[in-house]
Amino acid sequence: MTDAGLAIQDDITTPRLVLRRITLQAIEAGLAGDLERAGRLLGAALPRELIQEPDVLALGQARLEADPDYAPFGPRAIILRETREMIGHIGFHTAPDPDYLRPYARDAVELGYTVFGDHRRRGYASEALGGLIGWAQAAHGVRRFVASVSPRNDASLALVARHGFGRIGEHHDDIDGLEHIFLLDRAAPAG
């Protein structure tokens, strides 16, 4: 089976989007600057933005090489269903219940997302976030989700609020600076 065939079986779909797992082979092609090969592996047209800020690919590569069981939780391409164009990426930083999240919530996963410039302000991040959270609940029983957001990122602050995340703390990230920590707890009783 081809890499793209394997990825398609693992897709998360929403009304307008496909969230397709970025395989280790596609990550390696992207890090090598080979957008054509990475695009073939993903079955999508890839923008240059993907390799202009390769941090997500590099982090995904390191985590996948260290722990192959991380694969379903790793980075996913956000692909427009209609045009098969990659417009961003989304995924979890780790598998559920990593040590660093335990002070905030047990059995949680932290998520991250980016929608590339030309596709912002169209609801794609919200749709992708809802799709990823729904998949994690249905496929893996995950009920607690963490997001770290810069207090200057008004769009992401509004997005996590719309999805029901509540602020539970803050920390200083060595790369991103001050971040507020938000939790969506679907395990809590409705009140």
Give structural attributes.
single chain; eight-stranded mixed beta sheet; 8 strands; 26% strand
What does this structure look like?
By secondary structure, this protein is an alpha+beta fold. The chain contains 7 helices and 8 strands. It has an 8-stranded mixed β-sheet, with helices on one face. Strand 1 and strand 2 form a beta hairpin. Helix 2 runs antiparallel to helix 3. The termini are far apart.
List the helices and strands and how they pair.
Layout: H1 3-9, E1 12-13, E2 17-21, H2 24-31, H3 35-42, H4 49-52, H5 55-66, E3 76-80, E4 86-92, E5 108-115, H6 124-140, E6 144-149, H7 154-162, E7 166-173, E8 177-185
Parallel strand pairs: 5-6
Antiparallel strand pairs: 1-2, 2-3, 3-4, 4-5, 6-8, 7-8
Helix pairs in contact: 2-3, 2-5
